[in-house]
Amino acid sequence: MSNVEVENDAQHHAQHHAQSGTGERRLQAHFDRTISHNQRIEPRDWMPEGYRKTLIRQIAQHAHSEIIGMQPEGEWITRAPSLRRKAILFAKVQDEAGHGLYLYSAAETLGADRADLTERLIEGRQKYSSIFNYPTLNFADVGVIGWFVDGAAICNQVPLCRSSYGPYARAMVRICKEESFHQRQGYELLMTMMRGTEAQRQMVQDAVDRWWWPSLMMFGPPDSESSHTVQSMAWRIKLHTNDELRQRFVDMTVPQAEKLGVVLPDPQLRWNNERGHHDFSTPDWSELKRVIDGDGPCNAQRMARRRAAHEEGAWVREAAGAYAAKQAAHEAGKKRQEGPAG
Ligand SMILES: [Fe+2]
Ligand SMILES: [Fe+2]
């Protein structure tokens, strides 16, 4: 069954039940029970409009982040210091394209149109992660992105493997496996540089200093200012709050930094025995707001590149559309020849 048919089917059910008066309430009760039993909602199931809309927005933003996220590291593919590093980086950036595609497909199962989502991105009506609006100044940035940014992605996404929407949860399982490879390649790159010259060690420390705070901001605003959290957690499309995930990331990263031999740029960062977690300083939330609102160091550049890639790819979409139409006409012709009984 196509997505459209599934959707119509679900709508038909909904209308049918709604006409019977208590139908809508019964569907909502069934939905609530499915969620509270930790079971999955699938594309053909009835779901509240708010759930569908919020999920489309969340999955689309995630997909856009994967695609825009190819840019900061992609800039280093031609400048990688060895063939081995080039091959690794190529594979990593290509994985991110794949993640974007799985996620756009997951959004399509909710009735979203991929071309429409792309339009929303390039017109600036939908967001992507703030982190990709920072520049990659030297090759150590590639390592630090793998360690911090893919590490933060893992903190965010591993819980989503248990999210309530089936296609999203299943996409997340594969994505997380690849993210964990990304994190390790970043850390291994940094380990290699730390065993190198003093200049290389300084490059690593410089990249750590620049990426630490933007990485903490990736988890979003503090819980006290996060508007969607309560409803999204009730729907189980968000399983932990921004502050919980940020804390988890800090606790995970501190021992890795010690092993690597770099200093995380926060004088307040220390273990708190009572809480059983590390204490750390408050990120500059005004910077996060500025970057989200479009005024980060690379926002304009990232959007211009994405728009250009979309325009340059127009002929591929046209060719694929023409080929699909030709195939469909060919199939229809074959069916006519075979006759109604065939
Ligand atoms: Fe990814
Ligand atoms: Fe990744």
How would you explain this protein's 3D organization?
The protein has 342 residues and is mainly alpha-helical. Helix content is 68%, strand content 2%. It has 14 helices and two strands; from the N terminus they run H-H-H-H-H-H-H-H-H-H-H-E-E-H-H-H. The protein has helices spanning 3-19, 23-36, 49-68, 70-74, 83-108, 114-122, 139-157, 166-194, 198-217, 229-234, 242-260, 285-295, 299-312, 314-338, and strands spanning 270-272, 277-279. The chain has a two-stranded antiparallel ribbon with strand order 1-2. The chain is globular. Bound molecules: fe (ii) ion (2 copies).
Essential attributes:
globular, 342 residues, two-stranded antiparallel ribbon, disordered N terminus, mainly alpha, 14 helices, binds fe (ii) ion
- For the termini, the CA-CA separation is 22 Å
Strand fraction: under 5%
What is Rg?
Answer: 23 Å
Q: Which series of helices and strands comes N to C?
A: HHHHHHHHHHHEEHHH
The small-molecule ligands in this entry are: fe (ii) ion
Backbone structural class: mainly alpha
Tally of contiguous helical segments:
14
Q: Helicity range of the residues?
A: 55-70%
- For the biggest β-sheet, the strand order reads 1-2
Mean pLDDT across all residues, rounded?
A: 92
- Please outline the major beta sheet: 2 strands, antiparallel
Report the count of strand segments: 2
Low-confidence stretches: 1-8
Shape: globular
